[in-house]
Amino acid sequence: MSEGGAWQGNWMTRLYERVRERGFDSLTAFAEARPAVSLHALADELGEDDVAGVQVLRGLLTEAERRKQVTRFVRDVLVRLLSQHLPDGWPAVLDDPSRFTVAQVLAMWASFTPASHEKRVDQAGDTLLASPPPPGWRPLGPDDEFLRTLLPDEEV
Amino acid sequence: MTPMRPRPRWAVLLLALALLSTSCASWTPPPGRGKNLRYSPREEETPSLVLEAGTSQRQHRRQGAREAVTAVEPARQEALAAHLAFVRALGDVTTSTRLMSGELSRLEASKRGIAGHYPELFVPFVQYGTQQLRWMDAELAAATRLSALASEMEDPDMQRALLRLGGPRLQSAMMGAMLLAVWLDFLTLADVVLAQHPSYSVERLLVQLERLRTMLGPAMTALASGEPGQAEAAAADLPALIGHLTGEFAATRKRVLESGENLQKILLVKDLLESVALGSAMKMVLPRMLGPATSATLGVGLVMGSNGVMMGTRMVVSAEWVEMMRQLVRAGVISLPAVSAAVRIHAGQVMMAEAYDELPRGVREALGDGPEVRAMRVTGRAGAGMADPPRHHVLPQEFREWFEKRGFTGDMSIDQFCVEMELASHQAIHGGGDWRLGRMWPGEWNQMIMKALQRAETRAGHTLTQSEILKLVAEYMRLYKIPMNFVPGR
C-alpha cells in the first residue's frame, strides 16, 4: 500500500498524463474500454502507488458534467460497485450477509453521487430493494436495460 | 530388621516428599521435547487455532469468487499467513498464562509453604504475580478481539492493519509471560524452602524476594503500560534482566543448600529445587551456572538449522516457532528486537558475558530481517528518530458518540484508528488546501464516510456492527489510497 503518494503534487495533472500515456484522450474513454471493472482496479492501472479511485471518480464526473451525461455516469458507478461486491450477480435471497453487501453497495453509490442526483439514486435504491431484479442480474455497463429503467437519462 | 517392620517415620516423610517432588516435576516437560510449561516457544494446537483457521479458510473461499484483481491474491495469502501466525502466538501465550494462573493459585493456597506460617509476608508476592496475569489477560483478550475482527475483513490490508493494532498487545503479553515465569520459579523456590527447610532464615528469604521484585518490577510495569515505546525498550532489555535474575536464583539456591545441617534433608531440598527452575527460561542457563564451569558452551553461538534455531547440538526454538515469528515480523505485528530478545532468552544467551547485540545473521534472516522488513519498521509504528507526521482520525471525531454506540469504546475507541499523514495529503482529502488540487466532491472525507455509514445502516435495517463499519471504512481507505496502518491518536 502506498504511503499517501496519491495525494502528493497535482493529482489531476498526473491522472490525465497516465490516461494519455495509455492512448486515451479522456478518462471516460479509458473507463469505457474497461466496463464493469472496479474503481480500485481502474486507479491501480493508472498508478498503483499514486492514483486513487476517488480521483478517477472525480475525473469521470467532471467529464460527464461537461458532456451532460451525469445520469449515465451515475449508472456506470453502480455497475462498477456491483461487479466488485456482487460478482455472482444479484443475490437470490437477501440473507444477513448479502443484505449487508447490498446495503454497502447502495450506500457507497449514494455517497459517490452528486447532490443533483442524490434523491433519484435513493429512490432507485428503494426500488431495487422493494422489487429486486432477477437473481444473478449483473449489469455489464451503464446501458444495461434494467438499469436504464431504474435510472433513465434525463439530459437531452 | 525384618522386611515386615514398619518403616521409620522419616522414611515415610521422605517417600511423601519424593512423591511431592514428582508431582512438582510433572508439570515440567519431559527433557528433550523442548516443551515448556509457561511461555512455550513451540506452538501448541489450541482449539481457537482450529476454529479461527476454519473461519479464515471459509472467508478465503468466499473471496475466491470475487473479481480477480492483479496482485490481490498474494496479498490475501500473506494476510492469511500472518493471521494464522497471530492466532498461534496468541494460543501459545494464552496456554502459558493459563498454566501460570493454576500454579499461582496452588502457591497462594500452599499451607505448608508460602501460605504457611507467614502468609501476610509471602502471599503478597504471589498476588503480585496474579496482578500481572490480569493485565496480560486483558491484553490477550483485546488482541483476540482484534484477531476475530480481522478474520471478518475481506480486505487483506485492513486484515493486517487490525493484526498490527493487536501486535503490541500480543508482544507485551508474550514478553510479560516470560518474565512472570521467572518470578513464578522464585515463588516456587520460596515455597519449597518454607515448607522443607524451616531452619533457613525467613527474614533472609523475604529480603531476597523483595529485592527480586524490585528488580523485575520496572520491566513488568513498562510491559504493562500499553505504551509501545516503553514496552519495546523493556522487551529489548529482557534478556539481560533475566540473565541477572538467573544469577540471583543460582546464588539463592546455593545459599539454601549450604545452610542446611541435616544432610538427608538437604539432599531432598536439592532435589526439589532442581525441579523448580525447569519451568522457565532459566533452565537453559542454570545447569551451566550450577555445574562445573563449562567454558565449551560459552563460545557456542546460535545457528539456524533445518529444525529451528540450534545452540551447539541443542535445539532452542523450533522451526515452526521461527516461521510463526517470521510471519508476524513480516506483517509488522511484532518487532524484530522483541523476537530477538525472545530467542536469546530461550537460548539462555542472557548473561552479560554472552550477550550479543544482535543474533547471528542466519537466525536474523530466518526471522525475517530483510530490507523490506527494515523499511516497514521505519514507516511503521516505531518510526524511530523521525518526526512523526500528524495523526488523523479515520472515524470522524465529531461522531465519536455514534461510534461509541456501535462498540468503539475503551481499547477499541476511535482514537485507536488514526493514520499518519502529511498535512498536504490531509488537506487534499479533507477538501482544504489548494482547492484546485484538493477539493473533493461531494465533500470531505468525514462527510463521505458518515453518509455512507448512515445510509448503509438504514439499508441494512440494523445497527451496524464493528466489523461492518470497518469493512466499509476499508473500502473508502482503499478508494482514497490512505495507507492502512493504524496508530493510536493523541
Q: First CA to last CA of chain A: what distance?
A: 42 Å
Poorly predicted regions of chain A:
none
Biggest sheet statistics of chain A: none
Which segments of chain B are poorly predicted (pLDDT under 50) over 5 or more consecutive residues? Answer: 1-69, 292-299, 352-356, 377-386, 432-443
Task: Outline the biggest β-sheet of chain B.
Answer: 3 strands, antiparallel
Topology order of chain B in helix (H) and strand (E) letters: HHHHHHHHHHEEEHHHHEHEHHHH
Biggest sheet of chain B: strands side by side, in what order? 1-2-3
Work out the radius of gyration of chain B: 26 Å
Structural class computed from helices and strand pairing of chain A: mainly alpha
Mean pLDDT of chain A: 91
Q: Given the structure, what is the number of helices of chain B?
A: 19
Helix residue percentage of chain A: 55-70%
- Shape type of chain A: globular
What does this structure look like?
- The complex is a heterodimer of chains A (156) and B (490).
- Helices cover 60% and strands 0% of the residues of chain A.
- Chain A has 8 helices and no strands.
- Chain A starts with 10 loop residues before the first helix and ends in a 6-residue tail after the last helix.
- With 490 residues, chain B is mostly helical.
- Chain B has helices at 9-26, 47-64, 72-108, 119-152, 156-196, 202-224, 228-258, 263-276, 286-290, 295-298, 319-330, 336-347, 361-367, 371-379, 400-404, 423-430, 435-438, 445-460, 466-479; strands spanning 302-305, 308-311, 314-318, 391-393, 418-420.
- In chain B, the strands form 2 sheets. A 3-stranded antiparallel sheet of chain B has the order 1-2-3.
- In chain B, a hairpin with a 2-residue loop joins strand 1 and strand 2 (308-311).
- The termini of chain B are far apart.
- At the A-B interface, helix 3, helix 4, helix 6 and helix 7 of A face helix 16, helix 17, helix 18 and helix 19 of B.
